[in-house]
Every structure is written in structure tokens, then in C-alpha cells.
Fold:
Amino acid sequence: MSAPSTFDRSAFSVPGTGRGIVDVFAYRYLLRLLVRKGTLTRYHGSVLGWAWSYVKPGAQFLVYWVVMGVFLGLNHGIESYPIYLFSGVVVVNLFNEAFGNATKSIVNNKALVKKIYLPRELFPIADVFIAFVHFLPQLVILFAACLVVGWVPTVLQLGGAVVAIFIVLLGSTGLGLLFGAINVSYRDSQNLVELIRIFATWTSPVLYSFTMVRDSLPGWMYDLYMANPLTAAVELFHSAFWYPTTSQTMERPEDLGMFTVLALAITAVTMLVGQLVFRRLEGRFAQDL
Structure:
């Protein structure tokens, strides 16, 4: 009886796996195609088309302003409240759209996932880029409104706004990878994500001032509140767009720089965990879909 032959498998890789996000850079042309397809088909067949990118956040802002600003009186308690409100709304909208779409990205592209191999991270990352493209019209509206009321920011404040966008994109990508992978097998994940998106608007100082939280909660709970990366991102946008339009006597969070560094660290860890879970589960995607 002959001895079993040995075969060198070192030059081969397990089918359906890759190097994770690193492979996305090697497939840049596919990423561009996915982003282009997503942006072009977003409002396909719609009468207003891309105008919805202005109408929807405008309607959202109007509802919040009437309820919180007029009915609850924050219009008088917070100087330049419309700018304060909208500069927070656009940040949360970016997070909610990027996170929500990335969670459903694998399921929505199941036809491609089941037929061919390509880095599956392409799908959630493409949806995050698409959300960023749809965020730009809202940013244009914010720029225009700030200029009308005499907005003169510093370079440091504008740099803070860029950091805020990076925090939101990094965090939503990490969460999108995490929940997008879990959502393939457990569709309840989408419902959990919807709850997180609802809470995102109310657990960050978008509709109200951070001072209301500071004055109502114990110190450790306030620190926990400020440790939320989305809170840091919103406050960075407030510093960049709202604060320069005020008399600059309005109170701003202490140690915002420290909380910004903490936000970057938390989102980096979220990205790492999301990638690890995604790679752990991606071998089952075709089977579970």
C-alpha cells in the first residue's frame, strides 16, 4: 500500500477570502463603478431627481426648528439656533445614511456575492462613499446659510470640520462592516440598526445644547455622553459653522480636543472590530444568501 502523497498548498488561498479592506484599493475601478451606479440610480425615475437631496434635509430641518426652536423656545436660548440645528442635522444625516445603507449592502448585492468573487468590503464602503456624495448638497446649503449671516471661521475650525467628517465616515464604515456581515444571517440586525439611527439624533447635541446634558447628569454620565464619537463630530461642526456666526459668548464644551482624540480612537477600534467580524463571517455569505 503506497503512502499518501503530499501536496504543497502554500501557494493557494482559501476560495472566497482576501486581504480585507486592503483589497479594496486593488479594485478601485469597481469601487468607482459601484459609487457611480449608486449615485446615478438614487433618484432614477423621480420627477425632482437630485433636488430631493435638498428638499428632504430642508423639510427635516423645518420640522425640528418649529418643534424645538419655536414650540420649546430653544430659538431664544441658543443664539443663531437655525445654524446650530442644521450644522448638527447634516452630521447625523451623514452617519445615519452611511451606517444604514452599509448594513444592507451585502444583502442588496446578493446576486453579485453569490456568483463571483470580489472583495465583499467593496459594497459597504461604496455605500459609505455614496452617502458622502449625498451629504455634499446639505453641506452646500450650510455653507450658504453661514455666509449670509457673516460666517468667518478660522483654519483650525475648518480643520475640525474635516476631522468630524472623517470620524463619521470611519465610524459608520466600521459599524457597517460589523452589522452588514451579521445581517446576512440575522436580518433582525436591520431593526437594531434602525433603533441606533433613531437614538443617534437624540443622543448627540443636535436639537439641544450640550449644557442641558451637563447640568442634568452626574459628571461621569456627562463624560460618557461626550465620549460618543458622534457627539464630538457634532460639536466640531458647531465650532466650525455655528460658533463663528454668534457673538462668541456662547459656551462650548471643555476638553473638546481630548474628546476628539478619544472619538478617533473609538472609531479606529470600531473599524478594526468590524473588519475582523466581517472577515470571520464572509465565507458564509454566499451560502446564507
User: Anything to note?
Assistant: The mean pLDDT is 86. The two ends are 44 Å apart (CA to CA). The chain is about 70% helix and 0% strand.
